[in-house]
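Moderator note: this is an archived Q&A kept for reference. The question asked for a predicted structure of one protein chain; the sequence and the answer are reproduced below.
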Amino acid sequence: MLIGSAELYLNHRVIRIGSTAPPEEVLALAGAPLVASRSHVQIAARAQVGLVRVRLWNRAGPAEGSVLFDGDLVLDDGAIGVGDILGVSRFVQNVGDPGVHHIRVAVDDPGIASRVDVVIDSGRDGQALTSVDGYPLSQFVVADNFNLGKSDELGLILSAHDMPHNRLAASFKVIKLASESDPLDRVEILREFRMRMVCEWLRWLAPAASADAVSAMAGYMSERLNETATISLDHASAELAADVLARLSGDRW
């Protein structure tokens, strides 16, 4: 699951990922896109031309991108640090017990990365998420011992804003299917919670829309889902997603 994200402006073209303590040895890229030690990896990224986005995931993360590192790192205090090697900017996230953790690092463009995904303690094989027929989603790697519930899956679907129609349609499908398997005494609470997740995602998709305006849309979306039969769920979810995005772009709230 997504546990942290940062956008860094680099003066020097190297990002360091790993233990919060500095490396004991000198790590030099020497023209390579990545260099690694027992406790750190360093990534060649773009510098002085734009922000570099680094996302941290725990036990489940995207399977896409060019994988530069897929192995173990020692995190002495159970936390992972991400930052530039000059020490100008850095963020730290606790990820579990001190010791060895499996780390997967994937980038968009090896050698000049602008997007870096760091997945901690995940599986290695890609897994498909719930999607609507004709509107596919990217695969994710998920730890073998991780029970991916409907809310967790919804969080992964809503973890980015590319393919907005595909993601929104899949979200509606997950919410509808989940309401048919949730405990009866929690159906309404869980559906409202998941719809709030969708609303927060829509706020990032359309920053000009206020929280109140987006929240008001939740009732409309819930009502449409309630009227949808499972047998036509894929078509109805895609249609509702198109409707909501049209209202969003036309400011018809």
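Archived answer notes: The longest strand covers residues 66-75.
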